[in-house]
Amino acid sequence: MRSRVSSPTSCLFTLASLASLSHAITLTPVPSPDLDLSQLGRTGIAGDFSGISLYEWVGQNEQPFTANGSETLMTQLPNGQFISILAADASIQAMCTFQGALILGGNFTSLGGDAFAAIAALDLNTTQPSPLTGLSGQVNALLCDEDAKMVYVGGSFQAGNLSANAITWVGNQGWTSLPFAGFNGPVTSIVKAANGHIIFGGSFTGLGNTSTPNEPDEQVINLSTADISAEQSSTTAGFSDPKNIVCKTSGADGSGNTWLLEDNTAGSWQAKFNFGFEPTKLRLYNTHQDGRGTKTWRYTALPINGIMNFTYVDPATQRNMSCTSECPLSSNSSIEYQDFYFVNQVGMNEFRLDISAWYGSGGGLNGIELFQDDIYAYAVSDFNEPNCGGVSFPSTATSTGPWTVSPSGQSNSEYLTAQLNGTATSAAASVTFFPDIRASGNYSISMFTPGCIQDDTCLSRGQVNVTFVTTADGDPGDNIKIVYQTNNFDKYDVLFDNIEIDAASDSFRPRVILTPANGQTLLNQKVVAQRVGFGLVNSSGGLNGLFEYDPSKATVDTADFTSSAFDKLGSSFSTRSAVASLVVDGDLTYIGGNFSSSSVKNIVAINTDRNSTVDLDGGLNGAVWSMHASEGQIFVGGQFNNTLDGSDAGLSHVAAYDTASSKWSALGAGVDGPVTRVAAMLLNITNGSPEEVITLTGSFRKVRAFGSNAEIAVDGFAVWVKSQRTWLQNVNATVPSIDGILTTSLFNVSDGTSLYAGSLTSQAISANGVVTMGETLGTFPVTFKTQSQSTNGTTGSASIAKRQSVINSTESVTGVTTGAFYESGDRNITVLAGHFSASATNGADISNLVLIDGAKDNTVTGLPSGVSDESRFFALAIHDDTLFAGGVINGSINGNSINGLISYNLADATFNTQPPALAGGRGVVSTIAVRPDSGDVYVGGSFRAAGSLGCPGVCVFSTSTSQWNRPGVSFEGDVNSMIWPSSSTMIAGGDLKVNNTPTYLASYDPSSSTWSSFASASALPGPVDAVTVANSEGSQLWAAGTEATSSSVYLMKYDGSSWRSAGISLDQETVISSLQVFTVTSSHDSSDLVAANQVLMITGSLVIPGFGTASSALFNGTTLQPYALTGNSLNSAGSIAKIFVQNQNFFTSAGGGGLALGFVVLIALAISLGLMLLIVVAGLLLDRYRKKRDGYIPAPTSMYDRGTGMRRISPHELLDSLGKGRAGAPHI
Predict the structure, then answer these.
(1) What is d(CA 227, CA 956) in angstroms, rounded to the nearest whole number?
(2) Would you indicate the residue range of the signal peptide (predicted)?
(3) Is residue 1161 classed as helix, strand or coil in its secondary structure?
(4) The Cα angle at residue 635 between residues 630 and 637, in degrees rounded to 5
């Protein structure tokens, strides 16, 4: 028989009221940047990233995935990235569609920042959730049964007073209990078997609910630490203090033991607490002092201001009675106390006793006690049971570490907060809870955590370890749980729902220990500790983790357990078994978990058509935590490495079971740690239609090597590509970059939309540090062996240290920092440099600089030996066949030490004779600029000499003489950037001095070897980090840097006469690494700063207000739009160092009437040929006219032999005739 659960929304809200999903989530594209790359030749993007995307859709970002337990509902963009639709403050464990709505279940307390407890319905048109109120706890499993018009919900929760851990939502009725009172333990999975029955899996042993302790009303509420007050107290000494009656259980009258009211005056006694409680019993000790006593009273609960109803036993008649506003108290001195039982359990943190009538001259009391059924242990010791009142082992708590008491705010009680500095460890702080367990038995244990919004600690909350010692001979190592404390609102986690606990005694106290979790990356974590609750478990028994429910039956008979294959199988499991996952494939229902019987272990199947068990080779040798059925295969994740019979070694924490062949197979060689979640995802792997892949989430760090595939470093997330039978990183194609946590997914919700729950960071292309740039992004044919070791967690990349130029952050630079293209004759070489490790075509290791020879099938090589592997390259330049590479470089080439710069012959693939080593300063070359139309290579950075030549900041290497020269004698400083706007002027930016005067931008005239501070350079507020020309004439500049006084980023333009601010806002964490003006094919609105056919590209790690981080952005003079987004290893954002091109034709456009160079050449050739033809024709016409004028007649055309009519002419006669006039007709 079903019962309705009272809920504010059950009568008012139905899922049918939500809009249809036929018009699902709207994805909004962003305007195309329309960059004109046609004149630039080959183009590349260099940086420190492991994945990159163009910014094409609203919602794209660089945010890392959250590791604090919070998750989001996501969908996938056409470019492969995942974007958030709705944020939750904890996990979304399950979802399904029902009557046009998406049902979400989990352990969240908020969705989209608003309070939602455990379950909600989402309208995908508006992405607005609607509450399904009435549950308190956590939802683990959902089954939307459209045929039955109901949703089955399972988890660890209470649904009013009627059901626990399992309930249904009926479409037009709201919450409706099942024909049984739920389960006595959590439900983790629900499926509908082929026979139409509903299968529940979890950690329960029977149908039923938690119950009150064997001895109810025995947990004492601590009055001794409450704020006690009274009105109309007696003025008699020794009887006026209302605290006299607290912790007094003897019933004795007298001074210091009794509290009295004024004579013949009504009054009140009040207690106010810093914690909440739900009392079940009130015990009052009446006074008989001088014939006085209380006759009638009432109890008002505060702050709700409600007068409570009680039941009691009349001491005179021994009959059960009830009272409300005038509850009686006996004056019989032989009655020590009277107990009054609350009819309704109501939460309160304050109460007042109003005495309205009295015996004798006035009222009073000798004692008062308040009791509850709930077994709690509070972190704040004052809230635990008092040491008085005959309590043998009162609840208590101890702590170590920097704990302080925080106000309750919107929570149940005050709580402890510990502020931990640096990276927390479990030894940094602890709270040990000791509950008052009076009877041994099976209990549920719940951890209560206050919300983080009320104390503004959401960003500093993390994970805690909770360890249990529940029996005198128990091993605490078996009972450890991880709890996330990032909940926005108050929550409780059911840590165990059916665990054996011994009663407290002189020799043993059950205890729960809370400490920070080890291994967190969170800095300065705040840990909170409030209370732990215990509930005695009561049930019908007969089950063990499995239950088969027949919806066609109105009642459940426990006698039917023996006829169900599921129930019988569960009853054969050993004690403390648990079912974690259920999936259905055809007639078979697969059951995975942590269980064992005489014939199966951890995984088994039941054929519902035959009502029989299928043993799956006896199961697996470790726990199964998650499963997914896909196209005849059951993908299984957990903590195992073989089948039970040992026949399939290599099943390292993940395996696939083929339902047709009944065989197990490995996924590669598995992973190196437990897999907690297996979920499906759709990815476009081969530029065709999306295909299903299998994702794994868990606590593993490596994908194991197999076959010719090397080991892959991961962060607890891996993707298996079924069609390729390999991991995503091994696929020989352009694939996306994905990392994070995927809890569950749902395909084809509407119009092909797929939804995902978890926390993912993704980029369209998986690439380490460099990509090709065009209409789409592509990869270079080089394999980087290891990803960047960037350690920045949220707002930037360690490749470009925050607030520092390359010169000041050389040790943190990783990834590809720069690149160059070289073409000469039949040679075609791409150079990539930075700080990385790559593989050569012949398998050799390459460090920091690779050469890709396009003329030799993209053969990848590195430099010859001599350069230290610890070197870091920051700048490249090519002159003729020579590559100059600068940075933090050291080593020895041909017996000569090198520092800062190397020279390499690209034609011969050998080192040249090296320039004398740079010395002094930081020994860094940050920029190289070859003077146009010359062989002079200008090198800038932080150094003071080149060989024996004093040459601070900038030095010139002459390729004609192979020696260093100092460009002028009035310059010094640290140079970050150099450019040649023309062959007659060089611009250098950094922290400089010219003629001993500080400046941030200087110009150099090579004709006179003189330096000068750039025009109006005093307007620049700090050292210049990047500079570029702003127009084709080179008369205008863009400069970016860091303000010297505020550490803010600035971007300014020199318009030919003065400097102007760009007027854009970037957060202080921004790092700008390069600037470059691009021509666009579609004009934008013109501004004073940027021409209508141009945009300014800014690269680095940009923190854009209202958007977040971007690795590059385009500025059109008025607005800043992200251009490229990156992600990096260790769950961080990446950065872009620069964009490098084959041709520096940034101000030449193929649009707006221009033509490509090839077409221009052809047209010029055609015009030349046409002009030549016209000249020839004109010459022929003039010659004909002249001949006619001079009397020429046509020559004879007879075909007879004319040899007899001709005579030889001597050469001198012929030559002599050339100088004579042409007055007469010619003759021979």
Answers:
(1) 82
(2) 1-24
(3) helix
(4) 150
What single DSSP character describes residue 1148?
Answer: -
Q: How confident is the model at residue 802 (pLDDT cuts 50, 70, 90)?
A: very low
**Interatomic CA distance for residues 376 and 204, integer angstroms:** 23
- Please determine, for residue 790, whether its predicted confidence score (pLDDT) is greater than 60: no
CA-wise closest residue to 776 among 243, 18, 35 = 35
For tokens 């923190």, the residue is 1103
DSSP 3-state of 1197: coil
Tokens 């395996």 belong to 655
Check if the beta carbon of residue 54 is closer than 8 Å to that of residue 47: no
Banded model confidence at residue 801, pLDDT cuts 50, 70, 90: very low
pLDDT at res. 1126: 97
Cα 1051 to Cα 1136: distance, rounded to the nearest angstrom: 17
Amino acid letter, residue 1211: P
pLDDT the model gives residue 539? 57
Q: How close are the terminal C-alpha atoms of the chain, in Å? A: 135
Report if pTM > 0.90.
no
Phi and psi, residue 785, nearest 5°: -75, -35
Quickly list H helices, 486-572.
565-571
Distance CA 74, CA 685 (A): 20
Sequence-distant (6+) residues with CB within 8 A of 966 are: 949, 950, 951, 955, 956
Residue 1130 to residue 663: CA distance in whole angstroms: 37
Q: What is the DSSP letter of 1125?
A: E
| Per-residue model confidence (pLDDT) at position 27 | 87
- Show the tokens assigned to 768: 């380490």
* pLDDT tens sequence across 536-562: 876 556 789 999 999 998 888 776 787
Both tokens of 991, joined, read: 């922290």
How many CA atoms does the CB half-sphere of 653 hold within 13 Å?
Answer: 22
Closest-CA residue to 578 (of 551, 610, 544, 629) = 544
1168: enclosing H helix or E strand: helix 1157-1189
- Cβ atoms of 155 and 118 closer than 8 Å: yes
- Spell out where 1014-1116 has E strands: 1024-1029, 1037-1042, 1049-1054, 1059-1061, 1071-1079, 1094-1104, 1108-1115
Burial class (CB in 10 A: 0-12, 13-18, 19+), 528: buried
HSE-CB of 1174 using CA atoms within 13 angstroms: 6
DSSP 1151: S
Gap between the Cα atoms of 512 and 807, Å rounded: 52
Task: Measure the CA–CA gap between 890 and 901, rounded to whole angstroms.
Answer: 8
Please tell me what DSSP assigns to residue 507: S
For residue 54, with 0-12 CB atoms within 10 Å meaning exposed, 13-18 middle and 19 or more buried, which class applies?
Answer: buried
| Peptide bond before residue 8 is cis, with ω within 30 degrees of 0 | no
| Six token digits for residue 9 | 């929304």
Predicted local distance difference test score (pLDDT) of residue 1169: 75
Q: What is the identity of the amino acid at 323?
A: C
Mind listing the pLDDT tens digit for each residue in 434-463?
999 988 888 889 999 999 999 999 999 999
Q: 75 and 55 in contact (C-beta within 8 Å)?
A: no
Write the CB contacts of 867 (distance below 8 Å, at least 6 apart in sequence). 847, 848, 849, 889, 890, 891, 893, 898, 902
Are 635 and 656 in contact, with CB atoms under 8 Å apart? Answer: yes
Which of 921, 924, 913 minimizes the C-alpha distance to 889? 924
Dihedral-angle region of residue 575 (phi above 0 means left; psi in -120 to 50 means alpha; beta otherwise): beta
Give the largest Cα separation in the chain, rounded: 176
Q: Distances from the Cα of 589 to the Cαs of 630, 653, 665, in angstroms?
A: 13, 21, 19
pLDDT at residue 1038 above 90? yes
